[in-house]
Amino acid sequence: MSKLKFFLYVFLLSALSGFAQTRNAKNAIVSEEIIFPYQNEHVHGSSIVSLPNGDMLACWFQGSGERTADDVRVMGARLKKGSKTWTTPFLMADTKGIPDCNPVLFLNRKGKLFLFWVAVHANKWEDAILRFRTSTNYKDNDAPVWEWQDDILLKPNDSFAKEVEKRFKELPDNEAGWAAYAPQYDDMIKEASKDLLKRSLGWMTRIHPITLESGRILLPLYSDGLNFSMVAISDDDGTTWRPSLPIVGRGPIQPALAVKKNGDIVAYMRDSGDAPARVHTSISTDNGESWSASQKTEIPNEASVEICVLKDGIWAFFGNDISDGRYRLSLYLSDDEGTSWRWKELIEYMPDKRGSFSYPCLIQTPDGLLNISYSYSLGEGKKSIKHVVVDPEKIATKTNAEKLGFAKDKKVILLHIDDAGMCPEANKATQFYFENNYIQSAAVMMPCPNSGEMIEWAKKNPKADIGAHLTLTSEWQKYRWGSITKASKVPGLIDPDGKFYHEVPEVVAHASAKEVEIEIQAQLDKMIALGVTPSHMDTHMGTLYGSPDYVKVFLATAEKYQIPANAIDLSNPTVANLFKSQGYPITDGVVDLMNAYKLPKLDFFTSVPNGKTYEEKRNNFFELVKSLPNALTEIIFHPSVETENLKSITGSWQQRVWESQLFSDPVVIKFFKDNEIQITNWEEIMQKFKAKKQAK
What we know:
Elements: H1 3-16, E1 29-34, E2 42-50, E3 56-63, E4 73-79, E5 90-93, E6 100-107, E7 113-119, E8 129-135, E9 148-151, H2 158-170, H3 185-193, H4 196-200, E10 203-204, E11 210-211, E12 217-223, E13 228-234, E14 242-243, E15 252-259, E16 265-271, E17 278-284, E18 295-300, E19 305-309, E20 315-319, E21 328-334, E22 343-349, E23 356-364, E24 370-377, E25 383-390, H5 400-404, E26 412-420, H6 424-435, E27 442-444, H7 451-460, E28 466-470, H8 504-510, H9 513-529, E29 537-539, H10 548-561, H11 573-581, H12 588-596, E30 604-607, H13 614-627, E31 632-637, H14 644-649, H15 653-662, H16 666-674, E32 678-679, H17 682-695
Helix pairs in contact: 1-11, 2-3, 9-10, 10-12
């Protein structure tokens, strides 16, 4: 293996180790703006709702402080449909002489608008009174016209205290932060839960409610006094409310709710307990009536979090995924209902830790976009509420394997024989693999002397996956070939010896895109005229990726003939950067061309690595496959049987001979089986592609 190839091989292994983590798309943020100009007053705890007419309504609390500042009131603003500017803020609620905090907006299934918030009685969070007002007159004015207001007074019964006792027994032993001579935390909370007044007051809002399929509304609540959570339940569209059993744990507060496909409800909560600070979760299997003891996840946490189940089943999680401040907000996406978070996008991040971004609200609007609001502070005099719109499809990008219907948790490999038709030795090795069902895909070099022999075999074996290996170079010193087209029509492709140039840069330096187009279409036409319609097309020595203009011709030809090219998805920065490192001109224009290409694409492309011995080559191949992502990868190789003629053609004959043995090797076959590698070909890929297209 040359030093250059060894470097690229090592770089490939290290680069692909982070493949899944680097699929965050550029420009996921559609728009972002602060809702009102920066100011000195404290502004915090926002909520947003999408109104039926397409307007967005936001609210937050504002004043000279929080629970100790009696001038704190609830303010709001509207973003009218089609507008880019929010209206001047207006008053939404103000209990005179008492702080009003933590507002939440919600539309019930009948279109009634609710504003929930807390009036902080006696300036203590634990004495807060839960309030709400409603409106059906909110369409024609900036501020809603409120038609009803009341308090929500909850009275948990003795089962509340029994549940606390029960759930604390389910928690792991942990007395962190409590001295031996002080009352233990668990005992204090269990005792407090027996007090009717303590368990009835101080329940506060923070996160928007959810509506179950039955119509039941669950309003998430938490208590700073008890330092855990519960939900208020309404089965009459919000007219009356009753308490659930508590969500017990050591500090799980401010729950955000997500419903799984099986009906279970998961609460994601801020950690207000012992270190390390991590997001808590709890599950209800009875429509919110009772909840499991909370458990900590692996997600770091500093403040309130949000969760939203999107229309396509993706879960979106948003919050401060750090435990030493509020200088970062991240959006996580999951396609397995929170079991894992496959994608992540930073929405706010200040490495110097100056900013404070927190207390988000997250909803999906009918257009599929995520609308997020959160407290936004850059220091004194620079405080506002920020509104950000994010396109989740630009983050939760599926692999091309998934798009075709392959399993997302499997490596799908297209083992591909290059250089069929180049010489008798290549043909013999190719035919052996096909006839013994070891390999399922190959491509023929139509300008080469022995292409006719390979085409005749393909005609007799019509089920074989045979493509066109579009050839514009002739790399060997003594064994050469030229164009199918008359040299006078493609002079830029022809070297002084009347053959193709040896190397890709020479082709790029001399041949126009038009000449390239004429020749590759002539190669396709010849193959078709001889009775074999290629199942795919690819490019010998990567020549058609050697110039942005060539890429354009390559992809356009594939779409013209409706024959898939070995087009590589370059929207993944890891893949694009890898090919850039190999000298290919992967410009933004090339990426755009690939994004616009309408036939199936590969997630990745590579070749079988070399080795000093057969065993080393096999082991190198195993390491390569292990490093690949769960995606669709084409791996090319060049098998040939050993003859003196082959040795006279190429100095790489030994690697080619070993490659004629590699995929019939029982050790390799067992490796594929043990690692559940799925082998495919272009015929299957196109069948899946057409089936998906018809299903749409």
